[in-house]
User: Which sequence fits this backbone?
């Protein structure tokens, strides 16, 4: 392992441990909640940035990929009758109540990621051969349509929404929420590691070439469609993974909450504000913007609409005056040339 | 169901679909101009339409003016608004660099901020207008045509017709058609391409005022309704071929009929999915649109 990799992974593990034990030490549900939402946005923003930041293709469907993950959990929960499952007999050993979550929650996350990833691949295959703006429009419209499908599908709760009953306790954790939070933390750490490795591999270099000049890239032998599809799939899968975990945290999913445009706006605004050329940009954006929203929201200082207005206006200001986000401002301050 | 009942339903659905289609043309034409002719990715257009609807509601509820009159009053204001937006867009993005992401993010921000502002001011309640003709239905045998559909239909057809004549018969219109392809050629003819784009973009936003007023004649509105129109307007524009006026009208009527049939025979809650189906199929198999020259 090279020294920069070693530094990154050590740092990531230390940061993860600090977050987990920090939240545990504060022992208040409130901090767990805030940290969960911020981690969720770190993943959404990082996922968006893999296609949008590196490749230059704007995805307006983050909410849709997120919701599809959530509804895959709802669907399989009901299909497999997991609501009432007390223990699982696997032949030579039996998984009992407190250990069930170790199996069910990661499996749901995996399934949600696969389904959302496939949706990304499908949408990308149909529209990514065209100009970028058509992909953007398709993803925007995709959200409305998948929401229509869910609203008309009574099996997953239709307009009323659906409950996901999780097991009351998880072995080794003080509460089920804490375990869900732990899984969220692992997903966020994985997301950052994936983004960083994409950046350093052929995929990242190819995406960058596509962003700068797609025709030239194609002529120089970059397999543009293939790389774009890889990026869409990875990005969609990451959004689906957090979406699939979400029902276990709030125990309830409904179309209005799951398909909310707020997820989309945040996952675009955060990389834009943090910086789109480096994996740390979405991280910075998510911590700042997510932190501010959670802070104001929880203190009831402003209505949710006002805090959304703030996000929207801030995004427009940044896109106008600081195209490379906070990272770009920082580089300019240190006198480095900005990409 | 008996055959005669089905035929009655079919006739009504077809007529309603054509009416609806005319209205869809009115809301889509602005996008077709800005995307197809000006190369400006104005995805905030659906939010502008909602703004138009709420302006119509505000003026109607305060002074009791007819939405048709209001529409003519606010269209010039929307035109000025559009020219202002283009000014900002040009200064910040178009004149600087060619990163389409930033322009898209700018217009997406505009869409979102307008949306949130409407919710802040008007809440999520349904708002409608009061006119003498909203509830009137003209009956032709088994087919009934409500005036609240017929009037928006005529607005749409009229707007498309005027735009078509304007773009093909006047010097300025021809300059608009040329502006994204041959800015240098225009410059050599003594025309300022930026000015042409600014005025044309103003016109495209002005059509949102007409579309918005037409929308609130058809049905009461709430801010989130704009999202349903995102899929519709883009489906119409892509199917019709960006920048083609006759294509827009034809595609809009096709979508209107498809939605109306779906709504009658499958269920109204499914109709938002029709537009997206059409959009995706067109993008996948005929991206230049039905009448487009690829």
Assistant:
């Amino acid at each position: 392992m090279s020294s920069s990799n070693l530094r990154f992974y050590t740092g990531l593990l230390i940061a993860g441990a600090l977050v987990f034990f920090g939240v545990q030490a504060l022992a208040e549900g409130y901090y767990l909640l805030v940290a969960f939402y911020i981690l969720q946005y770190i993943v959404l923003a990082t996922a968006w940035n893999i296609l949008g930041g590196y490749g230059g293709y704007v995805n307006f469907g983050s909410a849709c990929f997120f919701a599809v993950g959530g509804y895959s959990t709802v669907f399989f929960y009901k299909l497999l009758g997991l609501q009432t499952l007390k223990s699982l007999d696997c032949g030579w050993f039996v998984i009992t109540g407190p250990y069930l979550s170790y199996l069910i929650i990661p499996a749901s996350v995996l399934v949600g990621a696969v389904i959302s990833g496939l949706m990304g691949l499908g949408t990308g295959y149909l529209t990514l051969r065209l100009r970028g703006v058509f992909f953007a429009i398709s993803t925007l419209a995709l959200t409305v349509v998948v929401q229509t499908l869910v609203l008309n599908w009574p099996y997953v709760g239709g307009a009323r929404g659906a409950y996901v009953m999780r097991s009351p306790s998880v072995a080794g954790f003080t509460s089920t929420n804490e375990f869900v939070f732990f899984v969220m933390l692992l997903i966020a750490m994985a997301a950052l590691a994936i983004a960083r490795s994409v950046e350093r591999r052929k995929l990242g270099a190819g995406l960058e070439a596509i962003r700068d000049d797609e025709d030239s890239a194609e002529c120089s032998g970059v397999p543009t469609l293939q790389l774009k599809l890889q990026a869409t799939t990875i990005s969609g899968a990451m959004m689906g993974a957090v979406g699939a975990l979400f029902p276990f945290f709030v125990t309830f999913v409904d179309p209005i909450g799951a398909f909310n445009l707020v997820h989309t706006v945040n996952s675009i605004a955060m990389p834009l504000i943090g910086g789109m050329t480096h994996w740390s940009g979405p991280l910075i954006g998510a911590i700042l913007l997510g932190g501010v929203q959670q802070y104001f929201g929880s203190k009831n200082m402003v209505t949710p609409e006002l805090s959304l207005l703030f996000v929207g206006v801030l995004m427009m200001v940044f896109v106008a005056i600081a195209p490379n986000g906070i990272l770009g401002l920082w580089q300019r301050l240190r006198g480095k040339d900005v990409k | 169901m008996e055959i005669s009942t089905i035929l009655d339903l079919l006739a009504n659905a077809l007529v309603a679909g054509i009416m609806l289609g005319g209205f869809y043309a009115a809301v889509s034409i602005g996008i077709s101009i800005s995307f197809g002719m000006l190369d400006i990715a104005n995805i905030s257009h659906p939010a502008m339409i909602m703004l138009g609807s709420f302006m119509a509601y505000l003026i109607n509820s305060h002074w009791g003016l007819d939405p048709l009159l209001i529409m003519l009053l606010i269209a010039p204001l929307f035109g000025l608004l559009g020219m202002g937006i283009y000014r900002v867009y040009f200064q910040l993005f178009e004149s600087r660099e060619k990163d389409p992401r930033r322009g898209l993010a700018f217009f997406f921000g505009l869409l979102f901020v307008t949306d949130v502002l409407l919710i802040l001011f008007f809440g999520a309640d349904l708002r409608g207008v009061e006119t003498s003709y909203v509830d009137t239905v003209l009956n032709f045998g088994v087919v009934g045509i409500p005036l609240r559909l017929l009037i928006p239909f005529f607005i749409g057809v009229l707007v498309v017709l005027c735009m078509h004549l304007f773009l093909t018969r006047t010097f300025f219109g021809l300059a608009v058609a040329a502006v994204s392809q041959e800015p240098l050629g225009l410059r050599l003819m003594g025309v300022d391409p930026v000015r042409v784009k600014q005025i044309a973009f103003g016109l495209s936003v002005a059509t949102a005022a007409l579309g918005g007023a037409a929308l609130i004649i058809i049905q009461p509105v709430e801010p989130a309704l704009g999202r349903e129109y995102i899929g519709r307007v883009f489906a119409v524009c892509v199917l019709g071929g960006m920048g083609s006026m006759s294509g827009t009208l034809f595609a809009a009527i096709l979508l209107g009929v498809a939605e109306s049939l779906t709504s009658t025979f499958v269920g109204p809650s499914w109709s938002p999915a029709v537009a997206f189906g059409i959009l995706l199929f067109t993008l996948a198999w005929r991206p230049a649109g039905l009448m487009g020259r690829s």
Remarks:
- Chain A touches chain B at residues 52, 56, 58, 60, 126-127, 130, 132-134, 136-138, 140-142, 144-145, 148-149, 151-152, 261, 265, 268, 272, 303, 305-306, 308-309, 312-313, 315-316, 319-320, 323 (CB under 8 Å).
- The beta strands of chain A are 88-89, 94-95, 162-163, 252-253.
